[in-house]
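so ive been stuck on this for like two days lol. basically i have the seq below and the ligand is 2-acetamido-2-deoxy-beta-D-glucopyranose, smiles is in there too. i just want the complex predicted, nothing fancy, no docking runs or whatever. if the output looks off dont worry ill sanity check it later, just need somthing to start from for the group meeting slides
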Amino acid sequence: MEGRNLTLVVEFFFVGFTNNLSLQVPLFVLFLLFYVISLLGNISIIVLIVAEPRLHTPMYFFLSNLSLSDFCYSSVIAPKMLADFFASQKVISFIGCAAQSYFFTVFGTIEAYMLAAMAYDRYAAICHPLLYPVIISSNVCIQMVVTVYMGAFLTAAVYTWCVFHTSFCGPNVIDHFYCDLLPLMKLSCSDTFVGKTVIFSVVFSLGIACILVTIMSYVYIILAVLRIPSNMGRAKAFSTCGSHLMVVGLFYGTSLFIYLQLPSGDAVVQNKVFSVFYTLVNPMVNPLIYSLRNQEVKRALWKRTFSQRKFPLAKLVK
Ligand SMILES: *[C@@H]1O[C@H](CO)[C@@H](O)[C@H](O)[C@H]1NC(C)=O
């Protein structure tokens, strides 16, 4: 019963990146730039896909949902981080911290599930082109998207609960720039073993499941593509999944780096640098990868920005 008279933490403080003013300004400008590009890129993708009837296919619905989640993902972290940049006390309330952890994990999880769904979609399109409209009908597509969202809201609730149902009574300084679950667990004064075990086993099993779906889909895709006799046909089949494969590589690449952190060097600094990658850089480059590599997106973008302005009646005439 010694724990009774402990005072509970009502707010947390972030350490942030650096107190070195000569580094603060360039980092602030860089991160602001990343964030603005990511907002503009993701909003453009969503608007483009919603506005362009030719892009109303499952692949692009998944993509617009991925952009939506990228948009939310960086918006959970970046505004607070940028607003705090020059503050001497980077404070966040307990509830604010729990909310940030929750939504951050929600959108991170959506990303992982959505990439797996997209891999399955590409598998169906390339390996079963004739049955594709049946396998991924618009109903199935909506169901997949809803499942991804519900699954993510649920798993994120489990993670967040594991951390925030414990007591925080001691130090309340988070050596990070947002409320990340693992640094928070270190501050908890309860026993976090069970929570950690639950989080790791859920992340591990669902992560493995997503990775397996993705890898299996691509194994079948590659086998199917290799059977295509003409070079042209092969290139065409691959071009529809090339951007997805790059985004998958980037997502798992950065996630892997975080978990396989090299024991040498400053783990906290490494963690912060990689966190910048997955909170700001990934959401920024995903739309760029899709729009620069994808002929259909490029064509639609071109059409939206140029032809419609010159020929506003083009649509009616058609
Ligand atoms: C997400 O997916 C659903 C279901 O396919 C689709 O109707 C919607 O337009 C997509 N995009 C966004 C931004 O929600």
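The chain has a mean pLDDT of 86. The pocket of 2-acetamido-2-deoxy-beta-D-glucopyranose is lined by residues 46, 61, 64-65, 68, 141-142, 145 (CB under 6 Å).
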